[in-house]
Amino acid sequence: MSRDTLSDLLRVVRVRGAVFYYVSCRDPWSSESPPAGEIAEAVMPGSEHVIMYHMIAKGNGWAAVTGEPPVRLSAGDIVMFPQGDRHVLSSAPNVEPVRTTAEWVFSTRNVPKPMPIAYHHGVVDAGAPLPVDEADTIAVCGFLGCDLRPFNPLVSALPRILHLPAERASGWANRVIEQAVVESNSPRPGGDAVLERLAEMMFVDAARRYLDNLPADATGWLAGLRDRFVGKALELMHERPDQGWTVDDLAREVGLSRSALHERFMQYLGDPPMHYLANWRIQLGSRLLRETNRNVAAIALEVGYDSEAAFSRAFKRLVGMPPAAWRKAQSAP
Predict the structure, then answer these.
(1) Could you give the residue range(s) of every CATH 2.60.120 domain in the chain?
(2) How far apart (Å, rounded) are the C-alpha atoms in residues 172 and 14?
(3) What is the DSSP secondary structure assignment for residue 147, as one 8-state letter?
(4) Ramachandran class of 186: left when φ > 0, alpha when ψ lies in -120 to 50, beta otherwise
(5) SS3 labels along 80-146
(6) How far apart are CA 234 and CA 300, in angstroms?
(7) Three-class SS state of 314
(8) What is 14-212's CATH topology?
(9) What is the pLDDT of residues 80-107, one digit of tens each?
(10) What digits encode the pLDDT tens for the residues 263-300?
(11) Where are the CATH 1.10.10.60 domain residues in the chain?
(12) Fold of 227-331
């Protein structure tokens, strides 16, 4: 397994973080957050997909989404909702939640962040945190935005609730939570940038820790990354996307037959190797279109296509528009 493959993907899909709320709670309390898709434009403008996260700095609580068992949270834990589900955080299961509406999120989008919020006995005080010694639970909450298009296999490989208990955390994860609390309570110049980087580092660490603890029978992109043969093939395609790979070439490099490699890709990723390679090349091409001034012909060659026409056909098939039109749309205000 190559961790560089995970880094490649994280760089290309543009993960961006933001800390929005410093939440203090006193029993009994419960808060329901709307689906991320309803508030994405308010919290992470320009992001195609938004993940909400909560870092528990003090106390305990529960996290829940419909259709999943509630998860017990303790100080030092991190919980994320990778699929953007509507979810509830509470002092105990079945406490009637105070619903945060999308309208409220949009109405407070320009309030300086992190915004303090207090929950206690069904009352919500926006802008007025409870004193630390009076709060049963304190959480730092925010959002992570990323691209889904043209190709992002990571998000779909993550669960609806991603719970990272403190006891399984690396040492620096606890320091991230502590620093997030400090920056939230004592705003200083550059504080927003610090909080953004902390959130992004937390997400990378979360993906690695989830990967490390996947069960042996797991499937999906992360499980494929861990597989000896699929992981090596992914590494080769990420390392040399411009090479004229065939299934036979990849199978020979990883030490499997053509049919066996195909079967393993289908088992873990649900796609054959060449389909994955085509998607990855288009994702790389989209990044170059967005971040450079290179012409489409040069980008086509760099990501493994023999001609601009071949790249343009493949790009339009996956993205729905030609490369030049997509570039123009990305640069529009």
Answers:
(1) 14-212
(2) 23
(3) -
(4) beta
(5) EECCCCCEEEECCCCCCCEECCHHHHHHCCCCCCCEEEEEECCEEEECCCCCHHHCCEEEEEEEEEE
(6) 20
(7) helix
(8) Jelly Rolls (2.60.120)
(9) 999 999 999 999 998 999 999 999 999 9
(10) 999 999 999 999 999 999 999 999 899 889 999 999 99
(11) 227-331
(12) Arc Repressor Mutant, subunit A (1.10.10)
Q: At what angle do helices 228-239 and 247-254 cross, to 10 degrees?
A: 120
Torsion over CA: 148, 43, 81, 64 (sign): negative
Q: Are strands 78-81 and 16-26 parallel, antiparallel or unpaired?
A: unpaired
pLDDT in tens, 233-252: 999 999 999 999 999 999 99
The two three-digit tokens of residue 17, written as one number? 């973080």
pTM (2 d.p.) = 0.84
Encode 146-184: b = buried (16+ Cβ within 10 Å), e = exposed: bbeebbbbbbebbeebbbbeeeebeeebeebbeebbebb
Tokens of 187: 């705003």
Q: Which of 286, 80, 46, 41 is nearest to 199 (CA)?
A: 80
Burial of residue 10 (number of CB atoms within 10 Å: 0-12, 13-18, 19+)? middle
Is residue 56 within 8 Å of residue 136, measured between CB atoms?
no
- Residue-wise pLDDT tens digits, 173-220: 666 777 776 766 666 777 677 777 878 888 888 888 888 888 888 999
Q: How far apart are CA 329 and CA 312, in angstroms?
A: 16
Phi, psi of 143 (to 5 degrees): -135, 150
Q: Give 64's strand partners.
A: 88
Taking every pair of C-alpha atoms in the chain, what is the biggest distance, in angstroms? 66
Amino acid making up residue 195? L
Judge contact between 303 and 281, C-beta under 8 A. Answer: yes
Distance of CA 232 to the CA centre of its chain: 23
The pLDDT assigned to 187 comes to 67
Beta-bridge partner residues of 329? none
Q: How far apart are the first and last CA of the chain?
A: 40
At 94, the amino acid letter reads N
Identify any residues that bridge with 79 across adjacent strands, giving them in sequence order. 54, 163
